[in-house]
Amino acid sequence: MIYFAHRGANTQRVENTVSAFALAQKQGVTHYELDVHLLKDGQLAVHHDYSLLRTAGVDVKLKDLASVDLAEYPLINPSSKEKVSIPLLQDVLPVILPNLKLLNIEIKNDHNIYPGIEEELLCLLRLHPQLEGKILISSFDYDTLVRVRTLSSNVRVGLLTRQFDIKKALALRAESVHINYIRFTPQIAQICHKNGLKVYCYTVTDRTLAAELAKQGVDGIFTNDVTLFTP
Q1: From 31, 48, 178, 193, active-site residue
Q2: At residue 137, what are phi and psi to the nearest 5 degrees?
């Protein structure tokens, strides 16, 4: 079973921040998950929501910000007094690189809100040859993944979906299917494995549930606390 640190060590640090990924790295994490958005100056920001309302208390959209603006919106930090802000992807990569086996980058791009984000991401990744073969790109927006595959025949792709469709996964030449554990069934695992695909479920924070999913054929889980599953 593979354990992805979902948005870093986000039960102990603010999700998707350098601090969260640094702590996860210290905890021995080798598999990570994070989300990216395209800022108006072409930089890639690591954040889950399209708006800062939940995370910073202001209803500002990331698409309207440049990288220099991020420091103006400190993130709500319930765990400590540490002041943290939204990082750029280029700031996170060096933090997780030691011992990295796989980084799942989820592109946030519903309805192509960020035209060109796929090319910007691939261009950035090419600047880090040490990441070659260690990046898995996913998105809920299927057309985004089609564009990723069109731009690169080699990049690893995971179909992130709310409704399982093996035809879509195969058309993308995906290597994995990512699905909410609530929607997962053993039949999905059987179909995926028959077609050479792995199954990753999100978001699991219970040892018993993780063990049961493993028995049913799940290859990995996204979890908010990897320490629950390590000795």
Answers
A1: 48
A2: -100, 130
